[in-house]
Amino acid sequence: MIQTFNGAVVNAQPPIATISVNKFCVVFKDRNALKRVSLDSAIETRQFINWLLTM
After folding, report:
1. Distance of alpha carbon 31 from the chain centroid
2. Are 34 and 19 contacting, i.e. CB atoms less than 8 angstroms apart?
3. How deeply is 14 buried, as exposed, middle or buried, from its count of CB atoms within 10 A (0-12, 13-18, 19+)?
4. How confident is the model at residue 9 (pLDDT cuts 50, 70, 90)?
5. Cα 5 to Cα 26: distance, rounded to the nearest angstrom
6. 55: which of 22, 28, 30, 31 lies 20 to 30 Å off by Cα?
7. Residue 33: C-alpha distances to residues 1, 16, 44 (Å)
């Protein structure tokens, strides 16, 4: 699935194996690779994590 967050296009392929959060940075491992996304606020971070969890 492709999602746009903070002007960046994020391509995440289920299943999501791991998710790690440090302030506004989210690192996750999907079917293909380990990916890192930097966000601007706590609200955006929560929205992004919720999107990952619903995949």
Report:
1. 13
2. no
3. exposed
4. confident
5. 12
6. 22
7. 14, 10, 22
Q: What is the largest CA-CA distance in the chain?
A: 27
pLDDT at position 3 is 82
| pLDDT at residue 7 greater than cutoff 80 | no
Say whether 1 sits in a helix, a strand or coil. Answer: coil
Instruction: Show the tokens assigned to 27.
Output: 């690192």
Evaluated on CA atoms 16, 17, 19, 25, the torsion sign reads negative
How many angstroms from the chain centroid is the CA of residue 22? 12
The model's pTM is: 0.85
State both tokens at 10. Answer: 């994020």
Look at residue 16 in the predicted model and tell me its pLDDT. Answer: 93
